[in-house]
Amino acid sequence: MVSDRSPDQAAVDLELLRLLAKQGRRVPYPVSISALALMMMSWGRVPHWISVAWLMCAYGVLALRRWLLVRLPEMHHRRVDQRVRWAVGLSLLNGLVFSAAMAMWPWLSEYQRMVQTILVMGLCAGAVATTAGYGPVFLSFLVPVAVSNALAWMLTSDSSQLPWMDLLLGGLILAFAAILAGLARDTYRVFAESVQIRMQQLRSNQQLRLALTRAEQAMQAKTRFLASASHDLRQPMHTLTLFGAALSKRPLPEDSACIVAQMNRALQSLSSQMDALLDISKLDAQVVPVNNQVFALAPWLGRLVQELRPAAERKRLSLRLDCPEQACIETDPVLLDRVLRNLIDNAIKYTTEGEVAVEVSGGGDLWRLAVRDTGPGIPEQEQARIFEEFYQLGNPERDRSKGLGLGLSIVSRLVDLMELHLALRSAPGQGSSFSLSIPAAEFAHAARSGDAPTGPALPPLRVLVVDEEEPVRLAMRSLLESHGCEVLCAGTIREGLLQCLGARPDLALVDYRLGSGYDGIAAVRSLRTAMPGLPALLISGDTAPERLREAHEAGLTLLHKPLTEEQLIGAIQAALADRRREHRGGADLHQGTVSAL
After folding, report:
1. Are residues 406 and 505 in the same domain?
2. In the chain, what percentage of residues exceed pLDDT 90?
3. In which domain, by residue range, is 41 found?
4. Could you give the angle at the alpha carbon of 322 between the alpha carbons of 321 and 324, nearest 5°?
5. Cβ contacts of residue 186 below 8 Å, gap of 6+?
6. Could you tell me which of 174, 212, 233, 482 has the fewest CB atoms within 10 Å of its CB?
7. Is residue 96 part of a domain?
8. Phi, psi at 460, each rounded to 5°
9. Which of 184, 208, 232 marks a domain boundary?
10. Among residues 317, 323, 322, 381, which one has the least CA distance to residue 346?
């Protein structure tokens, strides 16, 4: 049953009962020793049966208190206030027993009376702590003990001494009792406040946990929705991209070729925005490796600036590079490329006139690489927020040409991943400067950076395409056949295995989502069981971090839809190169074994 008291008071009462139960196990030991001392002190003067009877009563009450107090907190079928009244009754019974010790007063010497007073009043002082100062429990013990002791001094004065001394002593006992009562009141107030604060903290923690659970559920729902929406959007985009690439390779009239080129540019723009979302997913999944290399900065930046210069020229901006020839750094060039592309692209997007400059300065242990523009600048109060996802300044209409607001968020995460320091200096009307501090390296150890090698054309390949959507299979067939490949298409893994009975493929392109309870990873395992060592690539429109982790743990390359022709061909070349390296490594190992024999 529950108490009719307020919830806060009921909580305080329950905590009080727990404290009394804890003290109920400890207090009987010192109190029983004190009772035994009182009895032994009176043994030679008081009739033995009185001393023994009083001691038995004291021990019986102590045993009853111990037995009942430790059970009170667990008596949930009783009201809380009823259990508190039982604790008060036990304290009163204990107080009456110790006040009955005054019955031995007439037989005691003055010294013994003083020792008895010290003992019983000491028990009263200790009760302040053992009862948490709770008034009814504490006073039910204090009042009978203190009053009986004071009256014993006042009413049994020795006529040979000054009467006022005994009266004064009785008054001092009552005054001490009053002080103890005040101290108990303050102790209980502190105790009650501490319990209420703890209860408030508990309620606050529960509310925070509930809010956190709801936020996590909302985030999971958003992640599931985005993953599903991303997959559903990427499927037709992937098909369109492949068909567009295949169509661009066919002889077309000039006006039709122009339409195809415009269509492919629109698809690339949409694909780049989807890739920004994919970058966030990869970083959240923690599957982006950092591969540091030593390379010369000037030629590397020269190529990057050259690629981005047309975008600046379309806005009539100057894109300038200032980099010392001896600048050489050690970092991941691929991740640094992504960072600088985002910074330069942002600078071009938001600068209407003037220039965008890429400047390298410093030397020694660090090179400082800065991207500076003459744009509108960023207010100080907004400089922290621009690194948040989907947050953009000066784009309330969400102009697609200015991106999704993910570029700087990706930059921030990549910089943390590469363990570099990114600094921002900006003011309204004075442009912005983003600078990176990158560890320097010796120029002699830098990799020679000429023009990036172009990949060779695909050799004649037999490629197995497993995708449950027929338009994707047809688009993939059209594109790969334009590169001289023989393409086997299958909608399920069973169909794919049947296709391979007559001729083993050189490579498998497998969609992640397949019917019949298969996913792409399981499909690749089935294919490799039948054809050990088969190179395979996973293709998916699902950008959830879990998919990235699963593919990474399975040792498979995961390509995300929509795929451009260059991405697909580059991934195929990389998979074939890895396979050749594995064969060479196996051959070298075999040759070494033969030589050893």
Report:
1. no
2. 6
3. 7-208
4. 130
5. 133
6. 212
7. yes
8. -60, 120
9. 208
10. 317
